[in-house]
Amino acid sequence: MARKSGEGENGDQRAGVMPLPDPEEYREAYYAGRVMTSPMGGRLDPLTVRMEDDGSGTVIFECSSSSLRYELSIPTGTRTERRKVKEVRESGIDPYCPRHGEDTRLVRVDRDVACPQCGARFGRAG
User: How many distinct structural domains can be found in the chain?
Assistant: First the structure.
């Protein structure tokens, strides 16, 4: 069976991209906009954000000192986050990412609204 571009041998991890250890700690730092230290000692710079079919997101980072690439999986919006986004949308205000704060407005992706910085989806667009 043919692999998709970027998939590793096992079909789930991208070739040459490693998952970050302790992803919850890295997610918290990423949502807060803090500088993230690479497992190799350098700084992690975000390269790309992918929105997955299941509503989750994936952020690919590159280490500034080693050029190694790491991925961070971002879970889909929780029920509470989706409800808050829906309430904001229904009040006529453009919703913002409940994880990144008021600096990041959600964008329309197909029929959903999603965060351009983390790729997570937070419900249907109005």
Answer: 2
Q: Are residues 116 and 84 part of one domain?
A: yes
Domain that residue 31 falls in: 17-74
Q: What is the DSSP string of 46-63?
A: EEEEEE-TTS-EEEEEEE
For residue 69, list its beta bridge partners. 17, 62
State which H helix or E strand residue 123 sits in: strand 121-124
Same domain (yes/no): 70, 99: no
Residue 13 is predicted with a pLDDT of: 56
**Residues 25 and 67 both lie in one domain:** yes
pTM of the model: 0.83
Q: pLDDT digit string (tens) for 63-73?
A: 999 999 999 99
Residue 22 lies in a domain: yes
State the SS3 of 69-102.
Answer: EEEEEECCCCHHHHHHHHHHHHCCCCCEECCCEE
- pLDDT tens-digit series, residues 24-52: 999 999 999 999 999 999 999 999 999 99
- Residues 63, 29, single domain; the answer is yes
Bridging pattern class, strands 69-74 and 17-19: parallel
